[in-house]
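Question (not urgent): is this output format expected?
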Amino acid sequence: MVGLAGIFTYIFLMSRDLPSLDQLENYDPDLVTRIYSSDGEILDELYLEKRIFTSLDQIPINIQNAAIASRIADFIVIGA
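Got this back:
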């Protein structure tokens, strides 16, 4: 019984730091601002972190699998 209470307490404490559903639905990442010339050439890019929106089908499957594997490894270490 004490173990069950501990699990619920742990889940509750960890879930306090999660974003709300509204924040997830309205996610607006800081992307690169590009400045173009009149002929369409990129003159400059402004950014703090160079984030470029990419659809999932443009990311190679090996990169997707590597990201998933790293998260699984983190979960296994934390969950142990």
